Structure prediction request, 459 residues.
Amino acid sequence: MERKIVIPGEMIIEGEDYLPGENTEKRDGKVYSSRYGLAEEQSNLVKVIPLSGVYHPRRGNAVIGKVENVLANGWIIDIGAADSAFLSLMEVPRYVNKDAMEEVLTIDDMVTAKIWSINKRGIDLSLKGRGFGKIEEGLIFNVNSNKVPRIIGKEGSMIKIIKENTGCDITVGQNGTVLVEGNKIEDELFAKKAIMYIAERSFISGLTDLVTKWFTEQGNKK
Amino acid sequence: MAFKRPDGRKITEMRPAEAKVGVVPNADGSAMFKSGKTIAIAAVYGPKKMHPQHQQNPRTGQLRCEYNMISFSVDDRIRPGRNRRAMEISEVTKWALEPVVDLKDYPNQVVDVHINIIQADAGTRCAGINAAAMALAHAGIPMKNMVSSISIGKLDKTLVVDLTKEEEDFEEGEGPTDIPVSITSDGKITHMQLDGMIEVKQLQESIDMAKEACKEVYKIQKDALKKFIEDKSEGLN
Prediction:
């Protein structure tokens, strides 16, 4: 089945063989969409990919957040979701002096972290793993979290193009916060421009070619 | 006897309607619905944490609606801000939308819907509900269905679809009766009000008329939502 745009309550496909996947519902042998987005079917599993809306945290997501508060046993981090996230002292892979926790992370610090669990009580973050920790420098801005997969591209193809063309190091949080680290501020702003260009065109297929073309055009202007 | 409407419409004919999605860039979802001279803009924010905290419900997320008529929306300037009528319509709008939105997965959270009427010519609550349903879909809120709304009127003894302000002020015979109805795309009624007097038999008739008219409204909402993505995937090339 070809991808198609669906609205809530619209019938996507009829037949007992089909299984309802993410954002779909099965009623009387028909699969209905429960969200606005693109419907697709792969080996009888029907799902809807949302294109708009707020960030929904998932386990395993790498995110970029801001320290909201310092507690006795950890930090409260705002990751742009409805619930704020908790980073426990135990999940920081270095020695932390409990009397001087501000030395590690203090209010308004930006941090990259991984969501290691989501439960009724809230979201728990972890810094264990490569590339996670406090952000020391760089340019940070937000895009809609639904556009993150397009910015990264298939197996990171898109992000690789941007890195090659701007010479910047780019970290994209699944919550839509982007960190750009370059040698010069001009390079960082150029990378931001490229990412905004992709975010605006996130519905177009064959975006990789378009971005390559855009970079050649921008290169000629310089 | 053929009934003559002031604007020459047929009795089952709606006013020319128009809809657009994504009209408020800062909102998580937004839509505009225009029916004749009535224009409603709806903006959706959330799901986000419920404030004040004592209203949080750990079982489910909640829907909160706010209906507001802008001071210049009618001929005589109205005093801006909440009044008794706006509070009632806000609540009625919430009841009309609540059966379709599914916020089970968002405990302690809230979805805020703000409806602003920027130009009013009767049927503002219907236009507001239509815009709000589209805005909720745009915000990616899980919904069982869409809601379409229309007002049915009784002028003397004739039932007509989609009243204007001029028709609402009709004074002859039995006078005007206004029945706003909201219906999901599979024909279930989520909201119905009655202002005036009507016989039971005619009420059934008016529901059937509303179901027909809501199919048209649904088509306008659906086309607007689909056009929004189509335009973005083609227009920018």
